[in-house]
Amino acid sequence: MVKVVDLVVDSNHGPRRCRPLKTPLLHPLLIPASKPLLAFTIANEWETAHTIAEARSSFRMPLTQMSSRIIDIEHTKDDREREGMVEEIREHCLRYLETDTLLFLAPSGGVVSKAAGERTLRECQEEALTPVLEFLTTQVWPGVTIKAVDGNEGILPLSYKQPKETLETIKRWVEGLGLWDLLALERATVAGKSFLMGARVVSGWSESGLMVGREGTVVQRREVGVEEAARAVSVEVVWQTGQWGEVEDTHDVEKEDLRRQLGSAILLCTGVGLK
């Protein structure tokens, strides 16, 4: 394990020691030794926090808060209570599959956008969805069928429901995740409003080896970058702002915050033990 305090460095005076960091439940904030990037980034959060208010801010200290949450759950002595907290996180993630941003496609045709290369919104959405589905259904959940909502049939057709086998396979996969991967999944899923993108990010970056792979398939690239993931879950916003323009201090702020959250999810699950 790595003590975050050992990595705190003062740029003017070199390394300096301070009191070890602790979680809200007073457990030592110890990061697995296989996650040095995470430990260094948490140390940097504290190095750049100049006031107590900043140190308590979830916006300024996201990795500190998420890592603390994981450690506090791990140290929960009551097995039933601990499993209840973990199950709540699993259910929270799985609910996003029902309204996944990537799976809701606009009706065919419609207006084309010059900013999108003279393409319709539907074409842009399909371009973002296809590689994610191909990766997940060949490398993570081989053979499963994932249905998208066709905008030609309405906003939410009554017939829309993922196959039972698909739901069972995905649920088993989520249940098999360790806490670091599970919290990373929750972070990426909520940030992009897409369970599929959350699964794509975690399965590609996790050091736990989450990819199963279908026989005969070749993985061209396992990791998905922050920028690529952010663009995929923001297709509609990008298309609309390309048509009508951005709202200052709204779209631009949300754009950067999305990337910050996706990046923090990657740091939670990746490590030097990457398999």
Low-confidence stretches: 5-17
Give the biggest sheet.
Answer: 2 strands, antiparallel
List the strand order in the largest sheet. Answer: 1-4
Alpha-carbon Rg, integer: 20 Å
Fraction in beta strands: 5-15%
Shape: globular
User: CATH superfamily of the largest domain, please?
Assistant: ATP12 ATPase
| Secondary-structure class | mainly alpha
| Helical amount | 40-55%
CATH architecture identity of the largest domain: Orthogonal Bundle
Number of DSSP E strands = 8
Under CATH, the topology of the largest domain can be stated as ATP12-like fold
Question: What number of domains?
Answer: 2
Q: Mean pLDDT across all residues, rounded?
A: 83
- Please count the helical segments: 11
Distance between the termini: 19 Å
Which series of helices and strands comes N to C?
A: EEEEHHHHEEEHEHHHHHH
Would you write up a description of this structure?
Helix content is 52%, strand content 6%. The chain has 275 residues and is mostly helical. The protein folds into two domains: 2-74, no CATH class; 86-269, ATP12-like fold. Strand 2 and strand 3 (14-15) form a beta hairpin. Helix 5 crosses helix 8 and helix 7 packs antiparallel against helix 11 (251-269). The longest helix has 20 residues, at 79-98. It is globular, with a radius of gyration of 20 Å. Residues 5-17 have low confidence and may be disordered.
